[in-house]
Hints:
By secondary structure, the chain is of the alpha/beta class. It has one domain: Rossmann fold, CATH 3.40.50. The chain is 31% helix and 19% strand. It contains seven helices and ten strands. It has an eight-stranded mixed beta sheet with strand order 3-2-1-4-5-6-10-8, with helices on both faces. A two-stranded parallel sheet has the order 7-9. Helix 1 packs across helix 5, helix 3 runs parallel beside helix 4 (119-131) and helix 4 (119-131) runs parallel beside helix 7 (239-255). NADP nicotinamide-adenine-dinucleotide phosphate binds at residues 10-16, 35, 38, 52-54, 73-76, 85-86, 109, 141, 143-144.
Amino acid sequence: MSRLLVLVIGATGSVGRLVVDEALRAGHRVRALVRPSGRTAWADGVEELRGDLTRPETLECAVDGVDAIVFTHGTYGSVEAARRVDYSGVRDTLLALKGRRVRMALMTAIGVTDRKGAHDWKRRAERLVRASGSPYTIVRPGWFDYNEPQQQRPVLLQGDRRQTGTPRDGVVSRRLIARVLVAGLVSKTAELRTFELVAETGPDPEDLDELFAATDNDAAGALDAFHDLRNMPLNDEPASVVSDLSRAKVQTALGGL
Ligand SMILES: NC(=O)c1ccc[n+]([C@@H]2O[C@H](COP(=O)([O-])OP(=O)(O)OC[C@H]3O[C@@H](n4cnc5c(N)ncnc54)[C@H](OP(=O)(O)O)[C@@H]3O)[C@@H](O)[C@H]2O)c1
């Protein structure tokens, strides 16, 4: 298996910390993006890089030389914070790559297509990643750590039809989310996949490739995941978002030359 330099964005967060551990366990090197005010003691093998997703000038150093990026950052509640951090953080990280293709894993949320508040900005971040031209896996987890201890079996859903906005939509441990995000980085069968991740009763299988392979990949050039409702037409999107998408596509075309 190849040893990657993995940039973890949101590395100090509840899932990001576990992604750091999981990536080290998988034999990768880790670069952790930490805000200037953040304080964390890291294990050997972790390079800490100070940066802030709302300060694009700090992101060029962060992406320099990386093979893969795992996005686990996020905010709760405020639509404006979701725009400034959840969305713009992804946009500016992609711009910092200047068209260079790296393996990506993006964590968003189950119910992200429900057209409610902050979710639209997470979904727009998904769209930018699809437009980036990089091989990616987008993971939409259910409710963190609402699972019973025996619920360790990952179940990958598509179409995002569970939208009550409660744990009834599905539950999953943070540890399992981290495992899926990291395993996807080196799995051919996880490429260009978007799925919801929940856990059911049963053990965590050793190999996730078969589970990834059983999902449908996103169509080439599509904005949304294969089975998503087409309920966010580009024509109704803010002009700035349309422009960000065009920029991502131009960068992709140039990066492919
Ligand atoms: N809770 C659930 O059941 C659930 C389910 C599905 C999806 N989600 C989504 O998952 C996301 C992450 O949740 P979490 O509980 O892991 O959150 P968390 O523990 O607060 O972690 C968020 C991470 O993002 C980082 N971050 C925030 N603003 C940043 C900025 N301007 N620049 C750089 N890094 C920044 C934080 O850094 P600091 O440590 O410096 O603040 C932290 O590392 C949320 O957006 C949530 O909507 C949650």
